[in-house]
Specification:
By secondary structure, this protein is mainly α. The protein has 15 helices and no strands.
Length: 352
């Protein structure tokens, strides 16, 4: 029963969030804490000294940023639908999800390499978004040099204030716990009072991030449902009806999800990278998810790096800087990436 639940937990969480959104929306304030502790336990699995930058990190980051601008300007030129163009921009420009290392580890990817890219992607986004969104915003005055210079730093600091604590906070705390544990047992060992030990998360605690992520998906699904219902009740602001925009965004975000997961897997396979240190894989959930080749590990890792997005941040950025209805692009992406991850987990478990 546990294996069945774990393999299909994401399906259950999305359905619970969709049908119980009226009650679950009250849990929105605890979402940052779920993410914080989810990252803390994930980073406890990683020795910071094992983090390395590799070629595929820079290639995936370049693809993420260039595709977002190409797709936006292509859609705004040919469809003249700003909601669709901005919604698809969010699907590509969103940084890697903080939960991506959890799924990558379960599928046999490298937690270390994906943690490195998650940090790189999120902090690159804090620079790129304030630099590009004034050109996309409907407020034409922001394009002037004076307005741009006064806009960039407040926007940069605001994004950094949202991303920084959720990334650096658990990362630094996990590192301090590791250093304190190793220092304590090293002194006990030198004094002859205990055996020498190195910090290592127990198998039971190693599964906690997955269940915290499932809980966060329930809250996010409730938020998506509320966003869609609210949008359907708003008056039409362009040539497209609300229902038409929703359908177009759902279909477009589906293809955006497939393209990014596919491109990421291809880049990782073509640019394999070693992973220093120990990677954790939950054999109880996915007993067959343990590729042994470097290309196989990198393919899974880069696929999650480019395909699994920080959708909660994307929804917030769209609602803050762009047309609030464009947040439906990121909201629809939440559904597709979780469906894709659920299929990956289910297929990996069935290989046994």
């Amino acid at each position: 029963m546990k294996r069945l639940f774990d393999s299909n937990a994401l399906w259950f969480s999305m359905l619970i969030g969709a049908f119980g959104y009226k009650w679950l929306l009250t849990l929105s304030p605890i979402l940052p804490w779920l993410i914080f502790f989810m990252l803390f336990f994930t980073f406890c699995k990683v020795n910071p000294l094992d983090l390395r930058l590799h070629r595929w990190h820079w290639v995936v980051l370049g693809v993420q940023l260039s595709l977002s601008l190409i797709v936006y300007f292509a859609l705004i030129t040919f469809t003249h639908n700003p909601i669709l163009a901005q919604g698809m921009l969010m699907c590509f420009i969103m940084p890697t999800a903080t939960a991506a290392p959890i799924i990558a580890g379960k599928l046999g990817g490298s937690i270390q390499n994906l943690t490195t890219f998650t940090l790189l992607s999120n902090f690159a986004t804090t620079i790129i978004v304030p630099a590009t969104f004034p050109l996309i915003s409907q407020d034409a005055q922001l394009i002037s040099e004076l307005q741009f210079s006064t806009y960039f730093w407040p926007a940069f600091l605001l994004l950094l204030s949202r991303i920084g604590p959720l990334l650096l906070g658990p990362f630094c705390l996990a590192w301090l716990v590791r250093v304190a544990f190793n220092f304590y047992y090293k002194r006990k060992y030198l004094a002859g009072e205990a055996e020498q030990k190195e910090f290592e998360l127990s198998p039971g605690l190693a599964q906690i991030p997955f269940y915290l992520w499932v809980a966060s998906i329930i809250v996010l699904s409730a938020t998506v449902t509320q966003t869609v219902i609210t949008y359907l009740q708003t008056p039409t602001t362009n040539d497209y009806s609300p229902m038409t925009n929703i359908i177009i965004l759902i279909i477009s975000s589906f293809f955006a999800c497939l393209i990014q997961f596919g491109l990421g897997k291809f880049i990782g396979y073509r640019l394999p990278a070693p992973s220093k240190g120990r990677d954790y894989q939950d054999v109880l959930i996915n007993p067959a998810a343990a590729p042994t080749t470097m290309a196989g590990v990198s393919s899974i890792t880069a696929g999650q790096a480019l395909g699994q997005k920080n959708t909660s941040l994307g929804v917030w950025m769209a609602q803050t800087y762009l047309n609030p209805m464009a947040s439906l692009g990121a909201a629809a992406y939440i559904i597709w990436q979780n469906v894709f991850n659920s299929l990956q987990l289910t297929l990996a478990a069935r290989k046994k």
